[in-house]
Fold this protein.
Amino acid sequence: MYSLAFLLIVGWFSSSQSAQQTNCPPVDLLVEYESSPLGIDKLSPRFSWALCADPSARGILQYGYSIEVNNTDMNTVVWSSGLVVSNSTTNIPYQGTLKADSGFSWRVQWWQDATTSSPWSESMPFTSGLTNEGVWRNASWITLPNASNPTTSPTHVLLRSKTFTLPADKVIARAALYIVGLGYYQVYLDSRQVSTHYLGAFTTFETRVLYDTWDVTALLTENPLSDHVLAVELGPGFYNQHTVNADRFKLARVLLSVKFTDGSDFFVTSSPDSWTGAVGHVTSVDIYDGEHVDMRDGMYIYIYLYIYIRCVLDVLSRVIDKCVLYILSRG
């Protein structure tokens, strides 16, 4: 009698624990070993996850998994794996179509057996990069305008800027900035620094250069005005060190991609004809010799003055709006 009761209790406890464990969704979702990465240009990115975050869950065995990938730009499911019988949780390759310059989200659930699954994990976002040359939308390499030879201002930092206007009647869903800067670069949007690093990657520049992807959605949506300024500083770096390789132009290639909620998009590309340029306020930059700055020089004065006037006008308009609302509220 006691033995039967003991077995019933053990059986109930095991069943209860098993049910509790399958209610624990997957966690620590990664794409190519990163959490919510930007600019994935691998056509079949790999997904990884952990089964459960509950420290009391022990002895969990995965019978299988299901993965679902959604294109958030189009709000469409682009791949659903269905139940895949496998105990693997790392480096599961994506088997759908990866559209370049797009936003995605993915989620996963694990199965204890053929009929019992966990809840879906939280959706984890990621974006695709520029997977082929055509996606750059004819963005050109730019350097100092009318440079007669590569050694023009060899140590100076060059400044290129572009003013653009977004449609005022559209709502931004997502905005990504893709940029290559040779050798070092800093990029600014409406006077706010976008890039967070100072030393660029060192590669064999004759055969390979790397581009960066930056999410600038917040910078564009926080600015209530339609007019914006995109500016790029270019320094020598290893690519054009004044002691070696001093015969190279400083170069940049830029693509700003803006997606709107109505499905349309807007692009700003680097072009020698449409970007203004001048020698910047940094007169010398070198990883060994340091940096020399002359704020009297370059186009920074005009860009900052332009942005300052815009900010003042914006503040005045907000004050006027509040005054009008106050007067109306007082009757």
About this structure: Residues 281 and 296 are 7 Å apart (CA to CA).
